[in-house]
Design goal:
This protein is α/β, with parallel strands linked by helices and 230 residues long. 32% of the residues lie in helices and 27% in strands.
Length: 230
């Protein structure tokens, strides 16, 4: 379980200081598919960065199974992310001089995972092993980033607008892969999006507005990537 207690996060100093997160508390259960929903500027991406350990809050606690990661130093935090966390962003961050297989293997090596080709197969890129990012479509590149994140066998997968740069057809394919892999491997998903339709795929929806949580509710009628609107 991820437990977040009274998180405050500010940027800037003095008169330019801006409070982005304003005392957020919540719990995310193991294996859940959680969507953090909000408009641009609501603080959702900053919140994702804090709960994933990419940034530290100014105050408050982020607790993973009784371990408060806000107490960690830089090296401890790096190790925690390496051992527990996977990331998928709107940008793919693939290494242009490495093939699909080697990009994914980078993630696998962090977990000593010698079965990383299973993940490549699972995202439908078995026939693209020796291709370079420049030889792939945008959707294929995003699937490589998904495979790389999952090859390290994360306990929690964080996603920040993973379909933001994709067209509808490709976006639905990517969401479908993510959903099916979640069911197959049982990791926890925390996804940030501004798209209300994508939230309909999640178990838990967290709505943010102006740095606070305005609503949390359970979705009793989950939809697939091909049932939601776009």
């Amino acid at each position: 379980m991820i437990k977040v207690l009274d998180i405050i996060k500010c940027y800037g100093n003095g008169e330019n200081k801006n409070q982005i997160l304003k005392g957020i508390s919540l719990e995310i259960n193991d294996g859940d598919f959680t969507v953090i929903l909000g408009a641009s500027g609501s603080g959702k991406s900053t919140f994702l960065n804090v709960i994933s350990g990419l940034e530290l809050p100014d105050s408050g606690s982020v607790i993973y199974d009784a371990i408060d990661i806000t107490k960690f130093g830089d090296s401890e935090l790096t190790k925690f992310r390496r051992d527990n966390i996977g990331f998928i962003f709107q940008q793919y961050y693939l290494l242009a001089n490495m093939t699909v297989e080697n990009n994914v293997r980078m993630g696998a090596d962090l977990a000593n995972n010698r079965e990383y080709r299973e993940v490549i197969d699972a995202v439908g890129l078995k026939d693209k092993l020796k291709k370079y990012p420049s030889e792939l479509s945008g959707g294929e590149q995003q699937r490589v980033s998904i495979a790389r994140a999952l090859a390290k066998k994360p306990k929690v997968l964080f996603l920040d607008e993973p379909t933001g740069a994709l067209d509808e057809k490709t976006g639905r394919q990517v969401l479908d892969y993510i959903s099916r892999l979640h069911e197959r491997y049982g990791f926890t998903i925390v996804m940030v999006t501004h798209n209300q339709n994508i939230a309909e795929m999640a178990n838990t929806i967290i709505k943010m507005n102006s740095g606070i949580i305005s609503e949390i509710y359970t979705n009793k009628n989950k939809k697939t990537a091909y049932e939601i609107g776009w």
